[in-house]
Amino acid sequence: MIVPYECRCGSSYAPTADRWRCDCGGLLDLPLGAVRWPPRTDVRSMWRYLDAGDLPWRDVTLGEGDTPLVREDRELYLKVEFASPTGSFKDRGAVVLVALARALNASRLVADSSGNAGTAVAAYAARAGVAAEIFVPAGTSEKKLQQIRGHGARVTVVEGSREDTAAAAAARVEESGAFYASHVYNPYFHEGTKTYALEIFEQLGGAVPATLVLPAGNGTLVLGAHRGFAELRAAGLIDRIPRIVAVQSELCAPLAEAWTAGRDEPEPVRPGHTLAEGIAIADPARGSRILVAVEDSHGAFVTVGEDEIAEAHAALAARGLWVEPTGSVSYAAVRRLRAEGSSLVIGGPIVAPLCGSGLKASL
Ligand SMILES: [Zn+2]
């Protein structure tokens, strides 16, 4: 599974512990992989869908993936990603990054996160015996900080924006040579999040949903889900991919603004204070790729307001589902689009994830 990184400038690199971007400064990508189908039957976790090859995943796994797909009504399914080992879908990507760090003989790693990716990386690093330092922006919920520290990782709180936090982490990586377990820069994260798509395909008995409604901040789930269905399409197993409705907070919507304006790249925004802190990304590094993925799916971007997020959170709780506020945005978007009679949510199954546990952060 360890294949070379590629950059759009034409360079490629065999992964090493200290490689996280191209010498030209560009982002690293991975070519589409060959999908493993049917999945292996001797493993219950997300690893049933991956040809893990050289990755020492058995030393790191906590049984991530295999989350419930709950039927909410005739067409809507909710995927309970908060039933993941550390309480969020980020486990899917984090376990792959940490297994990669182990395979590359990294003794320490660095990550930056507004919370859930940091907690996931800290947990898997602890299990793998790799020292971890997690950079978080000031204001990150105390429960997430406790979780990161509990796993033995060092926490560095950065006074400043989410972007300042990433810059501080990157500087530490450069000075220390640590493995950068970045859910934004390392494309192996999407090898993990693509299993979200493969799992839905299997859970629906080989049916392709009409619509995936997904939160979008740094786009790790949008890019992963698109990748999973694109690999199924490339293998001839399906003839279309679901339309992807990517959801942002009205108070921080650089991707939705670029989509509406017809631009190829988002422009940085000044974020407001939103309940959806987990997707409040003012300047998403993979923005152009996220826009292309949504366009390829014949999907769209939508934004939801604070009241809609709070109402969706309460409506989910009334149905027995306790999610963190950010985890409510997909459901908020489904409610809005249905109320408007939008064509984006007709024509077959709709799947929306509940990304993080309500025990991590409250309204
Ligand atoms: Zn390059």
From TrEMBL:
This is Threonine synthase. The keyword Lyase applies. CDD domains: Thr-synth_1. Keywords: Lyase, Pyridoxal phosphate. Signal peptide: none annotated. It comes from Streptosporangium subroseum. Residues 60-355 form the Tryptophan synthase beta chain-like PALP domain. PROSITE patterns: DEHYDRATASE_SER_THR. It comes from the Bacteria. One of its GO terms (biological process) is L-serine catabolic process. GO terms for molecular function: L-serine ammonia-lyase activity; pyridoxal phosphate binding; threonine deaminase activity. Its cofactor is pyridoxal 5'-phosphate.
